[in-house]
């Protein structure tokens, strides 16, 4: 067969071969294969068609061999191909699909026939992008290609069969609507998916693995976050369960909010509660989705599988979610429900590296850095960094650094060298400030330090620069732990001796606050301090014991009493204290008494005495020996012998030796001994006496015995006390205390049963001298530009209780240290500053304000130096123009003249018309009304009054006074009650309260909806027989007739009889006791008439006016009212109604000031009493001046080409307006002169403005120039009237928004203009202004995207939105919409809340400069996330932490002189001296006080140790022989 190079022939061949193959398959498989009909061929839409030719096999086996004829497409053979006899691979074929993942192949041939190892074809995936949503499935396309091929003589619509595990790559289809499945082809086209839920594809009939990276043979899988070959770091697992809290009171509850993009969502509820979904898209649209039957549903382009059981509901969503899903439960039954949830939530905020910042230099070699910013993936916008810190998985990428501007600088730069950048200018670096004070003084805390980025200039100057320049350098740690030692605690010293020697007394101990170093400090909780005093009992009776003698050797009670009689005096100064004298050495004659004298001192703090060396006591020592003489001895030898023999005899007879027990054992254990005690006793009394009374020769011999022979238990052993830790205040002495066995071998403390001796005791408990206490330097007031640092320097004295006493500076010796110094002596970077805002450009309405900006630099000396604007051009500048709103511009209106009523009685009437439409038993009315009621209705008419007693109120009906009756009565409160209204009750009722009067008119409505005539009117029906009743019933005819009458005459005459007998006029005027001919009575009737007409004029609308015409026409039809009277009354009512609706014209009376008869005769005085005058019975209505017709209409914009309006209304010009007609008509047509003005100036006719002289003005083709106030003035000889209309150019609304982001963390009241992002602290008040302009004035409305306005939000009168006490729920986007007839405008602002929290601030200055008692405090402050401090009011809702406490300046103090107290004067009279101890000491860091040699202290500052003293002069006494001193 010849070679086919044309693709057309190749396609024909493929069609023929495929059809033949189908025929073979159809014959071989019978019912399971398609039968091909002649003339119908299947042509695949996508087929792999390699270029080349097929050779017919000569073996007869009907195989085809492919031969390459196009040798130009061969690639270069690789070394591997050369070694394996393969030719180079050919080019890749076209993709089998255009989307959704297809296959492409490449071929190679074996150059040696069929002896090559390996495959001659290879595949790859292609067109891996997704197909459009409306594209047909690829397998379905292949099935539908057989719809035109007969199968078993019929045509079928073939649909694909998916997921066949036996033959996934065979084309199996089923007939639509039939139970028939057929394999139409053994292989699907290459690129067809093996299964519907897998990316694996069929290639050459074999299912090949495809990874999520769309590569053949790849094992890449999507992680739980949906990221191909990901590590799961872009999402987090959220799982848990909660108990549904729905109830009849709380019908619905939010269970869990699953955000957009979440995957593998499983929500299950166990219990009766109904589970449903609320969705919210990124565009803000919301929806609610509830399912009652199980199945798969599509919600917001997300497939949702719903499962339902008897007590179980579940949602399974593979994801990703295309909207926010909020799962909710709804109450169905009173039983608890448990909700379980499981899903993978995407991390919505991630880091993104920024572009590189500008180069640091323009030439000569510099550097530039980039940074990382936090991005909201959903909204695709940059947000603050703390949003990315919420996710521990997010690690901020390190900045990158690269060189830039490496070109050499021009020679004019001078100092720059052409060399690598970092060889001559060091890179910026971090400089850190000192660590802050620890957050706590003990028990473990934290401390921080701040950093600034500095750069060294070419001249060696250190300048502070922007922080991003140091982003490349590793930033030192900003926080570390501190004060990990234990907090101080109370330690009690040993108890003192009991204050008594017998009976009940007190004992004391010292309790000190000891820190971890064993030093006495402050800081312990005072409430936990141990008690320092308790009672003690000495088991010795305070009286003579009855027992014969003590068991042990004790001092006799008599001797104790004698010792207690001695007075011991100890003071705070070391003093010699003598002990009691001993007994005299002889019983007769001269003898000697001795005593001990010790140097002792009284410790003030513990009130105990201690013994000191004798050299510590000053002054003379008391004598230790003195002579004594009990009685004289007999000097004769005979008497001496007699006495001696008598004494001996007495002693033998009276006194004798006896053993009186043993001495205490010499040891408490391990064997001791005790001696027997021999005492001299009186034989008769058995009392112990002096040993000298017994014969020493007969004293019993010494005797001893063993005692306490048992082994010794472990005991406490103590070492010697160490030196005192402080020289003043209160110090600590320590000693070692340990438990030892008798053999000196150590033992555990638990084995020592006795109370453990104290290892601490107080020492040197006296106040320290005043000294300067210098605290640490505070933070610099500036970071650059020259600032100041302050510290506290105070004079304080450390007292014995550990507290400090603040003193005046004069009491401290030495110069006072400086309390401030300069700091931050570096130049600041350039910055922009602005001036004050100018005045508003307008005096009313909306204008603008401007301000100027200047580029400056703050030098190291604090001077502000102006710079060129080019230096600051890269800095963001503040807004220089803003809008301003002044008071609304208003046109001047003439003042309305009001008549102030006199301070007399006042009736509070209500001007309204009441029409009863349904039957009711009782109604309540108020005077001033006009009521049309149904018969048989009871009515109560109230007459509310001021400044009048209600019980004196009188009522009249039709001029006749009313009295109480069965159907009618007047209550105590002045109300009128009428039972079951009937025809006689029709009329006008008047309430009279002194000089004040008010009326109410009652009418009855009949069954034909006509007014029922009162009985008095029915007798006059035939008075006007000529009336055309059909014409009278026609409202239009009646109205036309009255208008004609009004235009033809201005006066109406009625004779006296007509006035009396006209029912309508009497109903209006009626007054029962006055004559019409009297001028005074007529004046009163005229006022009543005016009042009646006023009430109708003020209360009628169009419907009420039609009702009046209808009723009047009925009265005219029956002849009860004449045409003249009815038309005149209605005319006056219409005129007054028009005047009442105008705000510019004072209400005018209907009648003239004089009685009608006087007008007729031309008189102005009183009316004559004669009735013979021709016109005396006439009633005349005086003509009035011209009154403009005013019909107020709601303000609206007309888009007609011709706009017609009446004077007094506002006219708006639009682009469609071509002609404006303004009508200026009179209420009563008459001759008058019309004058037109514009903006107060006389208006003259022109091409655009046409005046017709009869009250009409026409403006043609109006523009903005024709805007203004057009006034119409009408005048004649009787008076004048004026009215005006505003002509404005209509404009669509415009919101004057400002796109500026505002952050005010320190303001609790924030006011902004709409258009930007507002960041405010919680609990602040935020006002969002929405300044608008437009004509007519636009209407402003507000809404919050995705939610409703909460209760704390209110709309102000100027259109602003006030958000009070904002919280996290207030965050969101607020939209202002301004609308008028020409359109609408919208603007929005986004509100973000700044989170605040408590943080411990900087440490205060140390309270001491040396020693061990220095301390400093760290107070909490309210800060934001960026560290900025704000008012504490923004943190009130948070618990305030405790202040930190930390010791400081713990080092040795310099040596200084210490002095003791002055001693008493050395003499009691005359000149002597006082002395005190002066020593050189220093306080160590551990609290001990070290005595130093005198040379260590300044010799010049040594205080005096001795000073003279004087007392009263000594007195010289004379001694004479035989006399005493006197």
Q: What's the multimeric state?
A: single chain
Helix content: 10-25%
| Poorly predicted runs | 1-73, 412-424, 544-566, 891-902, 1016-1036, 1045-1102, 1137-1182, 1517-1526
Sheet-strand content, in percent, reads 25-35%
Sheet with the most strands? 6 strands, antiparallel
Average pLDDT confidence is 76
Q: Tally of extended strands?
A: 97
CA-atom Rg in angstroms: 60 Å
How do the strands line up in the largest sheet? Answer: 11-20-13-18-17-16
What sort of overall outline do the alpha carbons produce when their principal axes are compared? extended
Number of helices: 15
Summing up helix and strand content along with how strands pair, one would put the structural category as mainly beta
Head-to-tail CA distance between termini: 172 Å
Highlighted features:
15 helices; six-stranded mixed sheet; 11% helix; six-stranded antiparallel sheet; mainly beta; extended; 1526 residues
Describe the structure.
By secondary structure, this protein is mostly beta strands. The protein has a six-stranded antiparallel beta sheet, with no helix packed on it. It has a six-stranded mixed beta sheet with strand order 59-61-69-68-64-65, covered by helices on one side. The chain has a five-stranded mixed beta sheet with strand order 71-78-77-73-74, with no helix packed on it. A hairpin with a 5-residue loop joins strand 41 and strand 42. Helix 9 (1035-1048) packs across helix 14 (1123-1140) and helix 12 (1079-1099) crosses helix 14. The longest helix has 23 residues, at 7-29. The chain is extended and about 170 Å long. The chain starts with 6 loop residues before the first helix and ends in a 16-residue tail after the last strand. Residues 1-73, 412-424, 544-566, 891-902, 1016-1036, 1045-1102, 1137-1182 and 1517-1526 have low confidence and may be disordered.
């Amino acid at each position: 067969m010849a070679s086919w190079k044309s693709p057309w022939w190749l396609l024909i061949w493929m069609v023929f071969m495929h059809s033949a193959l189908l025929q073979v398959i159809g014959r071989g498989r019978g019912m399971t294969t398609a039968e091909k009909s002649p003339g119908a061929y299947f042509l695949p839409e996508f087929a792999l068609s390699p270029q080349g030719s097929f050779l017919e096999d000569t073996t007869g086996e009907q195989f085809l061999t492919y031969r390459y004829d196009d040798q130009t497409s061969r690639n270069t053979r690789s070394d591997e191909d050369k070694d394996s006899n393969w030719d180079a691979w050919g080019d890749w074929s076209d993709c089998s699909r255009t989307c959704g993942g297809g296959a492409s192949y490449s071929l190679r041939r074996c150059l040696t026939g069929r002896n090559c190892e390996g495959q001659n074809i290879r595949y790859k995936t292609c067109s891996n992008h997704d197909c459009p949503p409306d594209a047909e499935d690829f397998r379905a396309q292949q099935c539908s290609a057989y719809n035109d091929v007969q199968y078993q003589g019929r045509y079928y619509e073939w649909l694909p069969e998916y997921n066949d595990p036996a033959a996934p790559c065979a084309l199996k289809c089923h007939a639509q609507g039939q139970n028939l499945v057929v394999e139409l082809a053994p292989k699907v086209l290459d690129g067809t998916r093996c299964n519907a839920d897998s990316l694996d594809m069929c290639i050459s009939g074999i299912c090949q693995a495809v990874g999520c990276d769309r590569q053949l043979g790849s094992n890449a899988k999507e992680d739980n976050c949906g990221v191909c070959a990901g590590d799961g770091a872009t999402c987090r697992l959220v799982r848990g369960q909660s108990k549904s809290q729905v109830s009849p009171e709380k019908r619905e509850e939010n269970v869990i909010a699953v955000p957009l993009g979440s995957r593998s969502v499983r929500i299950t509820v166990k219990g009766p509660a109904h589970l449903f979904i609320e969705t919210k898209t990124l565009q803000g649209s919301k929806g609610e989705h509830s399912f009652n039957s199980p199945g798969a549903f599509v919600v917001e382009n997300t497939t949702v599988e719903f499962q339902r059981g008897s007590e179980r509901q579940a949602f399974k969503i593979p994801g990703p979610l295309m909207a926010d899903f909020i799962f909710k439960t709804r109450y169905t039954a009173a039983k608890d429900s448990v909700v379980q949830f499981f899903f993978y939530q995407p991390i919505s905020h991630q880091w993104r590296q920024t572009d590189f910042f500008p180069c640091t230099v323009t030439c000569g070699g510099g550097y530039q850095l980039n940074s990382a910013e936090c991005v909201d993936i959903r909204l695709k916008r940059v947000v603050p960094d703390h949003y990315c810190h919420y996710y521990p998985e997010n690690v901020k990428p390190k900045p990158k650094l690269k060189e830039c501007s490496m070109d050499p600088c021009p020679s004019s730069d001078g100092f720059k060298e052409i060399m690598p950048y970092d060889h001559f200018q060091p890179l910026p670096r971090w400089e850190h400030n000192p660590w802050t004070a620890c957050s706590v003084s003990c028990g473990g805390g934290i401390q921080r330090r701040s950093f600034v980025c500095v750069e060294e200039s070419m001249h060696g100057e250190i300048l502070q620069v922007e922080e991003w320049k140091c982003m490349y350098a590793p930033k030192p740690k900003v926080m570390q732990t501190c004060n990990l030692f234990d907090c101080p605690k109370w330690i009690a010293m040993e108890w003192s001796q009991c204050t008594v020697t017998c009976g009940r007394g007190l004992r004391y101990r010292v309790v000190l606050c000891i820190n971890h170093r064993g030093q006495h400090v402050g800081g312990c909780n005072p409430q936990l301090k141990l008690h320092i005093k308790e009672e003690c009992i000495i088991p010795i009776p305070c009286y003579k014991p009855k027992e014969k003698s003590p068991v042990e050797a004790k001092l006799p009670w008599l001797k104790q009493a004698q010792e207690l009689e001695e007075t011991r005096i100890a003071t705070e100064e070391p003093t010699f204290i003598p002990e009691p004298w001993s007994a005299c050495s002889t019983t007769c004659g001269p003898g000697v008494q001795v005593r001990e004298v010790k140097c002792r001192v009284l410790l003030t703090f513990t009130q105990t005495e201690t013994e000191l060396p004798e050299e510590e006591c000053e002054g003379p020592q008391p004598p230790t020996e003195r002579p004594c003489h009990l009685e004289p001895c007999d000097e004769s030898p005979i008497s001496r012998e007699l006495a001696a023999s008598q004494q001996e005899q007495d002693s033998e007879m009276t006194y004798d030796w006896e053993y009186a027990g043993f001495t205490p054992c010499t040891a408490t254990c391990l064997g001791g001994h005790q001696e027997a005690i021999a005492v001299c006793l009186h034989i008769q009394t058995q009392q112990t006496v002096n040993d000298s009374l017994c014969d020493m020769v007969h004293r019993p011999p010494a005797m001893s015995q063993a005692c306490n022979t048992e082994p010794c238990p472990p005991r406490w052993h103590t070492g010697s006390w160490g030196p005192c830790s402080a020289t003043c205040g209160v110090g600590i002495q320590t000693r070692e205390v340990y438990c030892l066995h008798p053999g000196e071998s150590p033992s555990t403390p638990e084995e020592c049963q006795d109370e453990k001796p104290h290892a601490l005791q107080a020492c040197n408990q006296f106040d320290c001298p005043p000294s300067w206490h210098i605290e640490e330097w505070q933070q610099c007031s500036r970071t650059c530009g020259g600032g100041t640092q302050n510290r506290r320097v105070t004079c304080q004295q450390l007292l014995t209780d550990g507290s400090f006493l603040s003193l005046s500076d004069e009491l401290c010796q030495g110069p006072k240290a400086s309390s401030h110094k300069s700091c931050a002596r570096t130049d600041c970077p350039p910055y922009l500053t602005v001036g004050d805002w100018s005045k508003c450009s307008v005096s009313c309405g909306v204008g603008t304000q401007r301000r100027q900006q200047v580029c400056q630099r703050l030098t190291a000396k604090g001077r502000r130096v102006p710079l060129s604007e080019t230096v600051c051009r890269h800095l963001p500048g503040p807004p220089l123009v803003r809008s301003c709103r002044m008071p609304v511009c208003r046109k001047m209106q003439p003042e309305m003249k009001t008549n102030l009523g006199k301070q007399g009685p006042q009736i509070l009437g209500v001007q309204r018309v009441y029409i009863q439409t349904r039957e009711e038993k009782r109604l309540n009315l108020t005077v001033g009304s006009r009521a049309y009621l149904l018969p048989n209705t009871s009515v109560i008419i109230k007459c509310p009054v001021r400044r009048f007693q209600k019980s004196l109120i009188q009522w009249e009906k039709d001029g006749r006074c009313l009295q109480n009756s069965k159907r009618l009565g007047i209550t105590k409160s002045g109300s009128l009650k009428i039972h079951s209204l009937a025809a006689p009750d029709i009329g006008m009722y008047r309430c009279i309260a002194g000089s004040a009067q008010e009326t109410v008119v009652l009418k009855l409505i009949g069954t034909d909806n006509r007014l029922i005539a009162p009985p008095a009117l029915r007798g006059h029906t035939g008075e006007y027989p000529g009336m055309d009743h059909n014409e009278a019933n026609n409202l239009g005819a009646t109205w036309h007739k009255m208008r004609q009458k009004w235009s033809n005459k201005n006066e109406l005459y009625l004779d006296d009889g007509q006035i009396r007998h006209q029912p309508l006029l009497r109903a209006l005027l009626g007054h029962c006791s006055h004559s019409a001919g009297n001028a005074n009575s007529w004046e009163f009737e005229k006022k009543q008439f005016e009042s009646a007409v006023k009430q109708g004029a003020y209360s009628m609308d169009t419907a009420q006016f039609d009702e009046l015409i209808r009723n009047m026409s009925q009265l005219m039809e029956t002849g009860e009212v004449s045409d003249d009277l009815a038309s005149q009354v209605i005319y006056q009512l219409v005129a007054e109604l028009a005047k009442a609706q105008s705000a510019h014209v004072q209400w005018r009376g209907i009648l003239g000031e004089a009685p009608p008869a006087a007008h007729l005769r031309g008189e102005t005085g009183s009316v004559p009493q004669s009735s013979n005058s021709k016109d005396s019975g006439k009633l005349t209505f005086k003509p009035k001046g011209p009154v403009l017709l005013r019909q107020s209409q709601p303000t609206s914009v007309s888009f007609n080409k011709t706009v017609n309006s009446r004077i007094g209304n506002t006219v708006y010009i639009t682009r469609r307006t071509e002609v404006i007609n303004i009508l200026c008509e009179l209420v009563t047509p008459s001759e008058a002169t019309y004058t037109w003005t514009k903006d107060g100036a006389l208006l003259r006719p022109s091409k655009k403005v046409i005046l017709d002289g009869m009250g009409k003005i026409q403006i043609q083709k109006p523009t903005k120039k024709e805007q203004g106030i057009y006034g119409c003035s009408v005048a004649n000889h009787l008076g004048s009237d004026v009215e005006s209309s505003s002509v404005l150019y209509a404009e669509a609304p415009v919101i004057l928004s400002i796109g500026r982001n505002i952050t005010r963390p320190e303001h609790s009241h924030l006011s902004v203009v709409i258009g930007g992002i507002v960041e405010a602290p919680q609990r602040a008040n935020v006002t969002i202004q929405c300044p608008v302009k437009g004509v007519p004035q636009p209407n402003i409305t507000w809404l919050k995207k995705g939610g409703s306005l909460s209760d704390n939000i209110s709309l102000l009168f100027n259109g602003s939105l006030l958000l009070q006490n904002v919280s996290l729920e207030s965050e969101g986007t607020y939209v202002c919409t301004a609308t008028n007839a020409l359109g609408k405008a919208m603007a929005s602002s986004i509100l973000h809340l700044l989170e605040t929290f408590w943080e411990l601030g900087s440490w205060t200055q140390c309270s001491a400069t040396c020693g061990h008692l220095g301390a400093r405090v760290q107070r909490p402050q309210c800060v934001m996330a960026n560290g900025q401090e704000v008012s504490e009011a923004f943190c009130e809702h948070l618990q305030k932490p405790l202040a930190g406490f930390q010791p400081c300046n713990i080092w040795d103090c310099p040596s200084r002189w210490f002095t003791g107290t002055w001693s008493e004067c050395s003499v009691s009279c005359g000149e002597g001296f006082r002395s005190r101890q002066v020593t050189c000491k220093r306080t160590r860091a551990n609290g001990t006080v070290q005595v130093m040699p005198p040379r260590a202290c300044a010799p010049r500052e040594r205080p005096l140790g001795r000073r003279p003293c004087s007392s009263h002069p000594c007195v010289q006494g004379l001694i004479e022989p035989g006399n005493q001193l006197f």
